[in-house]
Amino acid sequence: MVKSKRMKKEILTDLWVYELLKEANTELSPQGSEIKDIDDALKSASKSGTGKVGFPEYIGVVNDFVLVVENKADISFHIKRTANEVICNETASVKNYAVNGALFYGKHLAENTNYKKFIVFGVSGNQKRHKITPVFIDERGSYKELEDVETFTLFNKKNIDEYYTKIVLKEQTHEDKTTEEILKDAQKLHNDLRNYGSIQDKDKPLIISGILLALREMEHKGFSIDALIGDQTNTDGEKIYEAIEKNLKRSDVSPQVKKDKILSQFLVIKNTTVINEINGFLNKTPLRHFTEFLYENIYKNIKYINSAEDYIGRFYGEFMSYSGGDGQSLGIILTPKHITELFCDLVNLKSTDSVLDPCCGTAGFLIAAMHGMLQKTNNPEVQKNIRKNQLHGLELQPYMFTIATTNMILRGDGKSNLEQEDFLKYNPSKLQEKGCTVGMMNPPYSMGSKDNSSFYEINFTEHLLNSIVKGGQVAIIVPQSSMTGKTKIEQAIKDNILKYHTLNGVITLNKNSFYGVGTNPCIAVFTAGEPHYKNKIVKFINFENDGFEVQKHCGLIETLEAKDKKQHLLDVWFDRIESETKFCVKTTIESDDEWLHSFYYFNDEIPKDEDFEKSITDYLTFEFNMIMQGKQSLFNDKK
């Protein structure tokens, strides 16, 4: 009976690992290989050391790496180490422990095949509580233990070479080098705008946006850098402004009132005297210097990336976040690209969706949504409709509205439905007539008060929920404090939200997601127009460990592990796997609860024997120390 249960657990682990491999698009064969070199080697790979046949649970080749997976159902049989903390290679350990067995197979294959690189995995447990440990082995049998992972996403054809370069070799990829160059370019241009123009923070992105639009006219002979000669009759700023006007017309920005609003913001380029006069140090106007810099570093110097739009977009995003022109003093905080892309995944964005961002800032959510929807269809007519009719944004600040429109043009259009409007003064029923099925929002932060309760983030949330069609998905990113309902007004809004809408889940994010701002954010996802029924199960996830880390001089940087951690998050979010409560708690809610993982978390991990033994040992050690210090009275019976 015991043996039967153990076999059943082993089979369930095998099936769970198979699903993980399948989801990661990593094709490995169970119990053997169709590759002759590997198959021949396995004929003498018995873990008992008899020289007979032996098969790992899964084996295969991805690019030029041999991958081996060895499973154990019980997590306590994950790895066995020697007294010196190295992986034990004794026969009993090889047979009974996942990592030890995987390492044995990897070394055997290194010795008996022509392959040079092996990544083996010891996997133990089940989908809810498990460990996946990769180990790299070279052709000489030398091995290197690597950080545990949650999925096999990093080991498919798309990611494994990057994993090898970054994690095993500890080297930069071409993409890393490009990002480093972009950061340096953004910093230099930011400094030049300050040094040669004394430009205000909010005007820096406008000047860069305008020059980028003007440079697009070079393709149509409507603009030339050589024409920027510092002439005071027809200034460099006037020439750039004329090129901007042509490009807006070419991009079909309409109606005219919208085009006029945008052009009025670009007047700073021709009306700022200091950047239109020849600078003695530069021997040219600062405007020409800025234009040459952007042309040389963006339009000409496209390194490692095939798409110029990608490079331009990445530079523009880095410059925007670096420059400080994001309106932080107004409560406006730029949403990082990895968050805007995560929104698209969490709401399961489809090519037929229509998206509204009522506080669109620089249009980060709309750009992510546009690219996400375009990737899900090859039909040119559907793609055209996405750009023209399925992206809607509101932005109150005139200069941010201009930047958002420019950003959409630079990223491939989609600007036609942006409006300069005050979201809170916009009738939600009228917005609902746009037929938007998805809402995404990063509202202004920390602007609400008892005297001005309309600016509470939770009020923005309710207003957006009322603006989306029934059954639509709404995702917001807000400070964690807005999910607690500190004031009576906020509490009343939370209560009202549940009367008319459904909370699906809240994800606590990395505290450095908005690096340098000092906000602890979370993502909340709702279904609009459907009342939250009492027994509805809601997910609360702790995603603070998201694979992003702060690096000196670079800010928040994505590590390779971020892909793995994001895949695990989505697996849990869409109920593809179960998770420990330290990552995800599923529960019913009340409106006066704090809608955060930390509020609902409980430890569901069963203590191990060694945990009990350690507690007893710690107590006995403490008691002995106290007695030796003459404090035995602490342990006398109080009676």
Topology overview:
Layout: H1 2-23, E1 29-30, H2 36-42, E2 58-62, E3 65-72, H3 91-96, H4 98-112, E4 117-125, E5 130-138, E6 143-145, H5 160-168, H6 174-197, H7 204-216, H8 236-250, H9 256-265, H10 267-271, H11 286-300, H12 308-323, H13 337-346, E7 355-357, H14 364-374, H15 380-389, E8 391-394, H16 398-410, E9 418-419, H17 428-432, E10 438-441, H18 457-465, E11 473-479, H19 488-500, E12 502-509, E13 521-527, E14 538-543, E15 548-551, E16 555-558, H20 561-573, E17 584-587, H21 597-600, H22 609-628
Parallel strand pairs: 3-4, 7-8, 7-10, 8-9, 10-11, 12-14
Antiparallel strand pairs: 1-2, 2-3, 4-5, 5-6, 11-13, 12-13, 14-17, 15-16
